[in-house]
Amino acid sequence: MFTGIVQATGKIVRLDPLQVDCPTLDKADLAIGDSISVQGVCLTVTSLTQAGFTADVSAETRRVTTGLDQAGTWVNLEKALALGERLGGHLVTGHIDGIGEVSSSAAGVLRIRAPRNIARYVARKGSICVDGVSLTVNQVDGDTFEVFLIPHTLEVTTLGRLAAGAKVNLEVDLVARYLERLLAERA
After folding, report:
1. Fewer CB under 10 Å: which end of the chain, C or N?
2. pTM over 0.70
């Protein structure tokens, strides 16, 4: 489990296995086998390097996500949540629901078009995870939603680099997915 509160950014330096250099991530308690969110995708640390870590990425994960396929790409990073830690964002699993496309990004306002099959889970004032960042949805219009990016978020994540046409990993609110399943069972 994660919170969507990015702890550092890193740079992909190799693709197979995925190697991320992340000098600003506190790696003191990072161990082989730990889960780590890379651009919102839950991966398992397979080795520690002097500058970061490696992780295997399956063909299926590469097929259903974006942002893990090019060396030189900057990614958002978050170590797994430990019991007893603060939950500053929302509950995030690192299991990507779909790939969205940025419609516009200007003045701290990010507009994203979600795939139709997950757009129904996006609610005004609800939570969504974009490239591993927990955000509050401010507006929804059909399959497009809008989030505001505060200066701190722009400074410590990769979201400030997004432009129209960019692809992003989306994970909808966990509670919404379970609620839909429970309601379907009642019908």
Report:
1. C
2. yes
